Amino acid sequence: MKVKNRCIGLACLVVGLFLPALASAGTQDFWLYNQSGVLVHELYLSPSASSDWEEDVLGDDVLDDGETLHVAFRGREACRWDFLLVDSEGGELIFEDVNLCSVSKVALRCDSSQCWAATE
Predict the structure, then answer these.
(1) Which of 4, 33, 80, 94 lies in the 20 to 30 Å Cα band around 51?
(2) What is the 3-state secondary structure (H, E, C) of the chain?
(3) First vs last Cα of the chain: how many Å apart?
């Protein structure tokens, strides 16, 4: 039931916020693969040139390790973006300067010493 509610919530988020973008997808649209090893409770994206984080794209949902999320943009020009993941204990992982105009998949990965964004 939790998975079903989550899928419905994510579908509503995409349809409600990004309906105009579905007709003409932005060049920054991408699939996000959480391979960070953490359960993500909050996910913020922001253009790399900005000093502020934008809204939490997950809302009330979470993104478990191994799960995938499609992120769609509307009316955005920036190509380079930063990602902020917040786990259940408030720990933060930051991934900087990901060029979303040249990729369609972003895998956020961590090992015992570092984190990085693998793109495709």
Answers:
(1) 33
(2) CHHHHHHHHHHHHHHHHHHHHHHCCCCCCEEEEEECCCCEEEEEEEECCCCCCCCECCCCCCECCCCEEEECCCCCCCCEEEEEEEECCCCEEEEEEEECCCCCEEEEEECCCCEEEEEC
(3) 32
pLDDT (tens digit, 9 = 90+) per residue, 62-87?
A: 999 999 999 998 778 899 999 999 99
Task: Please give the distance of CA 24 from its chain centroid, rounded to a whole number.
Answer: 19
Domain enclosing residue 72, as ranges:
2-119
Task: Retrieve residue 39's tokens.
Answer: 């359960």
The CATH number assigned to the domain holding 16 equals 2.60.40.2890
CA atoms of 50 and 96, how far apart (whole Å): 12
- For the chain, the domain total comes to 1
pTM attached to this predicted model: 0.74
